[in-house]
Amino acid sequence: MVRRRHPPERAPAAEEDNGRVSTSRSTRTDGRPTLEKVAARAGVGRGTVSRVINGSTQVSPAAKAAVEQAIAELGYVPNLAARSLVTRRTDAVALVVSESEERLFGEPFFAGIVRGISSALVDTPLQLWLAMAQSAAERERVERHLTPQHVDGVMLLSLHDADPLPGLVEQRGLPLVLGGRPARLTRPGVAAGRFVDVDNAGGARRAVEHLYSAGRRVIATIAGPQDMGAGLARLDGYHEARVGHGLLNEPDLIAYGDFSYDSGKTAMKLLLSRRPDIDAVFIAADLMAAGALRALRDSGRHVPDDVAVVGFDDTSVARQTEPALTTVHQPIEEMGKAMARMLVAHISEQIPPDSSAVLDTTLVIRESA
């Protein structure tokens, strides 16, 4: 006897309604809310429901309200997978931070950036995907995920100059916003202007000018990494202030850290060993300044009587040090908001791809200087 072979079952297909997506009526079970049930409850046509779900403006306010009420009452959830086939949108964006988990969740700067981004995305359909990209395994996972099939756009933060991620993201055609000006704006494959930053050089210059105005003359600095835009710019501001006072470069007054507490402590010890006559120090991050304060205390120096100290960031750390830290305020949450808004505008093609934003900084005077 010949056994008849049945054709294989096909996966349910998404239907389009005037370019919009709905789920085929044949793919639903009786117990699950369907597009047709929403339409019946709202007293409108199926196409009207589809237009409301997809954000069309070609719907009257009364019909929109009726559909939204029916959706809420029935608990209807659109088929997002089917919708993405037509819209070619994932409704997800990525923030990739090139730091360890310890620093991402432990340092106030990163928390402020994430808060700002999240608040700017509240009124959009976009979901935020957060990832770290420091270890080889993390970078491999991140690189696999940063494709148009997974996200609509990417924000990159805490980049070092040799990082290949910006070029990779642009090669894949994804809208990209950098948190911080790149250290090398001419890096191949990266649009120089697509960033949000603060006035790092201006803030550093004001900090050093404040120390000079207070009568300090042997002013050192603990600079950040020189393969990062913020590290370079803050050191530039220090040099600009010295040049303005007719002073030559003195390499023994410069030490380097990586924006961490421990690096600030180590760098301060090095400076004191080179130049015991230091009477002030500008430090390119509050966490490094906290470490430097510890080193000064261990050496028997009193702040600000013996050595005045100015930091940069104005995070919660600056209010918790002893003495409280004079520092350059950068609007961290506003930076996060600006990054998210710029990315949303790029995704919707509302602004040119080479747009940039540089936010102002201000000096906050406290006890350390």
Automatic annotation (TrEMBL):
Task: Please name the CDD domains in this protein's record.
Answer: HTH_LacI, PBP1_LacI_sugar_binding-like
State the source organism's domain of life: Bacteria
Per UniProt, the ranges with Basic and acidic residues bias are 8-19
Q: Where is the signal peptide?
A: none
Kindly list the GO molecular function terms attached to this UniProt entry.
DNA-binding transcription factor activity; transcription cis-regulatory region binding
Q: Which Pfam families match?
A: LacI, Peripla_BP_3
InterPro entries membership: HTH_LacI, LacI/GalR-like_sensor, Lambda_DNA-bd_dom_sf, Peripla_BP_I
Q: Where is the HTH lacI-type domain?
A: 33-87
Region annotated Disordered sits at 1-33
In terms of Gene3D superfamilies, this protein maps to: 3.40.50.2300, lambda repressor-like DNA-binding domains (1.10.260.40)
Which controlled-vocabulary keywords does the entry list? DNA-binding, Transcription, Transcription regulation
Q: What is this protein called?
A: LacI family transcriptional regulator
Which lineage is the organism of this entry classified under, starting from the top rank?
Bacteria, Bacillati, Actinomycetota, Actinomycetes, Jiangellales
